[in-house]
Amino acid sequence: MNNTTNDRLKIYFAGDLFDAKDLGGNFLLAQAIETASRGNYQVILPQNGESEVTNRTSQSIRDADFEMLCNCDIILANFDGTDLDSGTVVEFCFAKMLDMPAVLLRTDFRDSGDKTLPDGEPWNLMCSHYPRTEMLYINAMMKYHECKKNCEFSMETITEFYSSIANEVVAALNKVVSQKSWLKESELRHQYQTAIKSMGGTMGKLLNDEQLSKITARKIHLNLYSK
User: Fold this and answer.
1) What percent of the chain has pLDDT over 90?
2) Could you list the residue range(s) of the whole structural domain that residue 176 is in?
């Protein structure tokens, strides 16, 4: 794939964005992913898009996030925590409704959820077993100490830490993008229309027929869906 601006796959980075650690960590990992992908991926951070919402209500912020999601090609969902962030789960479910390639990233080393089952994951089983979805587990504590051994505690440690995670994320993204979709190009527009109706709110205005045509044409151009 050419590394032109129009051909870069856009990643919607879903996850917590409620405190300094979330905001800073999301930013650093997003930058590291773009660098590691050598221009193949562009990471879209909801925390940036939400800051541009002028009439700030719960609905306007929600709809802005959905608009960003629909304009992206892949979802990278942060599945950290003893219980998953509910907003991230909703975004992941709509991404699956649109058959978007998905990577579920967990850097939290704690076990929880339905991990006790033979095929269980460290989250509720209703968030597992979806098509075109890769799960990536990274023990952040172990990764941090590995990086700290290589250099003194400094920004160099943090840079290496996020670069190391980003390399694994990019590998997972490359893998999931190559998987065949169940949604066909001829069905894409109708599926988006159905999702937009399900979202409700102002989504019909934000993603009108003209916008929807641009979105679906772009995804077809990128060969993300079956013929």
Assistant:
1) 85
2) 9-182
